[in-house]
Amino acid sequence: MTSRFGKLPWLWISVLVFVLDQASKFYFEGSLRLYQQIVVIPDYFSWTLAYNTGAAFSFLADESGWQRWLFALIAIGVSAVLVVWMKRLKRDETWLAIALALVLGGALGNLLDRMLLGHVVDFILVHWQNRWYFPAFNLADSAITVGAIMLALDMFKTKKSGETVHD
């Protein structure tokens, strides 16, 4: 049985992700020049300032600007679905609520960047001995990734309400 508000109280995680994401982006935009790198762990991890007008891995970044609105609409739609989903969760679905809250907080953090700046601010750079670079990312991207992994793991739970497990 779901309560009136489902798992909406877990939205505090979304708020925390959003605030930390925006604060970190504000800090790094004020502290670094575009593409400046500050090595944290030599050969593996650096802070850098980069702007992404596309989606994950700079998908569609070279387009003329229409992608900004497409990604904003997608983020708004996904955010609405996540809130409704959280409201409908049952008492024992806390893991799922946390996963959805992480994705929601990250989506809203990147949405605000897109709407106000026209791009997403990234500042985390993972690399290997200056030969391999993972695309720069931010805390919102990290929350979305962790939330998505948690959602995938939730699908593999053997005991879901209303379902029977067969050998």
Describe this structure in words.
It contains four helices and four strands. It has helices at 11-31, 66-88, 94-117, 139-155; strands at residues 37-41, 45-52, 120-128, 132-133. It has a four-stranded antiparallel beta sheet with strand order 1-2-3-4. The chain is globular. The mean pLDDT is 87.
Q: What would you call the structural class?
A: alpha+beta
Query: What's the N-to-C terminus distance?
Result: 28 Å
Largest sheet: 4 strands, antiparallel
Give the strand order of the largest sheet, numbering strands 1, 2, ... along the chain: 1-2-3-4
Residue share in helix: 40-55%
Order of helices and strands: HEEHHEEH
Q: Count the E strands.
A: 4
Q: In DSSP terms, counting alpha (H) and pi (I) runs of 4 or more, how many helices?
A: 4
- List the quaternary state of the chains: single chain
Question: Please, what is the average pLDDT?
Answer: 87
Percent in strands: 5-15%
**General form:** globular
Task: Calculate Rg over CA atoms.
Answer: 18 Å
Q: List unreliable stretches of 5+ residues.
A: none
